[in-house]
């Protein structure tokens, strides 16, 4: 079994005489003609139908079951179909997007289409943005639709079938896949599987975070000693919550804030959550009562109030 493998619907879909990458059809892959226990195998799924329940979806699903490194994986296939899942993870890319689109006109209603192959694009000003988008939605080919209304924003991201590429784009795509597969995967040391996976939500740019970076590193170290895999996540990782067993929020929480959305989503996914949504609500309501108490105290010196600084939420 080769260490690299490309899956297509038909061999006619991949016409690159210079490529030495083994090709198989989706039907052959599903029939286990390329089954292997080699976990180093990297599988690139280029099937046209990647919808849930489609042939391409099952190729990725079985690839993961066979311990192959599949691109795209099932989680990405599910996320890229729903804006509600992938959009929260793209929110922090706005500054990078504005920098990448400085050369474009920002007239109301203006649109722009960006095509990305394995995190690379022919448009040099947008290459950093392309890499970041690929990190969040690792797909062989992505089409990103931008719209301007004073400022450029990402309107939609979708999978791009290779059958929709023109001749020049196919040449660029073939070059990108060769470059991607030429990269050496990082080797991980053999270790026992952790008992639990804990996500710690933090914001490295927060001025006064609940936990310092040193404390967060200590959490990771202690977790390793206890057999718990601890991963520091950020706002962009919203779509990955289902991968974990528990969520520990170490950002300052608010109701009208992504921290509350994280807590709600984690609770819905059945994770252990600290702070849970009810605690965030109660803590916020306590602060409101404290503010009212202080305002009333201005009018009534006899009003007994609880000082804000005496309460830890």
Automatic annotation (TrEMBL):
Source domain of life: Bacteria
Residue ranges of domain RimK-like ATPgrasp N-terminal in the record: 27-175
One Pfam family it belongs to: RLAN
Name of this protein: RimK-like ATPgrasp N-terminal domain-containing protein
Lineage: Bacteria, Pseudomonadati, Pseudomonadota, Acidithiobacillia, Acidithiobacillales
């Amino acid at each position: 079994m080769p260490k690299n493998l490309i899956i297509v619907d038909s061999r006619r879909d991949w016409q690159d005489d210079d490529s030495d990458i083994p090709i198989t059809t989706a039907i052959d892959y599903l029939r286990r003609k390329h089954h292997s226990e080699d976990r180093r195998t990297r599988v690139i799924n280029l099937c046209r139908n990647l919808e849930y329940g489609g042939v391409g979806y099952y190729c990725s699903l079985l690839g993961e079951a066979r311990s192959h490194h599949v691109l795209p994986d099932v989680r990405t296939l599910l996320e890229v179909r729903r804006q509600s899942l992938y959009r929260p993870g793209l929110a922090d890319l706005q500054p990078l997007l504005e920098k990448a689109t400085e050369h474009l006109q920002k007239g109301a209603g203006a649109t722009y289409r960006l095509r990305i192959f394995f995190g690379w694009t022919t448009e040099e000003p947008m290459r950093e943005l392309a890499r970041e988008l690929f990190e969040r939605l690792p797909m062989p080919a992505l089409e990103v639709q931008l719209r301007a209304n004073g400022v450029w924003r990402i309107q939609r991201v979708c999978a791009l079938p290779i059958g929709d590429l023109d001749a020049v784009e196919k040449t660029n795509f073939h070059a990108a896949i060769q470059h991607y597969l030429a990269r050496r995967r990082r080797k991980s040391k053999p270790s026992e599987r952790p008992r639990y996976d804990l996500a710690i939500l933090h914001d490295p740019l927060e001025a006064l975070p609940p936990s310092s970076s040193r404390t967060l590193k200590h959490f990771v170290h202690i977790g390793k000693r206890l057999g718990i895999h601890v991963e520091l996540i950020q706002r962009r990782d919203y779509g990955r919550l289902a991968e974990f067993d528990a969520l520990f929020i170490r950002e300052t929480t608010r109701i009208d804030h992504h921290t509350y959305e994280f807590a709600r989503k984690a609770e819905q996914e059945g994770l252990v959550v600290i702070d849970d949504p009810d605690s965030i609500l109660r803590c916020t309501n306590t602060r409101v009562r404290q503010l009212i108490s202080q305002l009333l105290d201005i009018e009534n010196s006899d009003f007994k109030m609880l000082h804000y600084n005496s309460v830890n939420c």
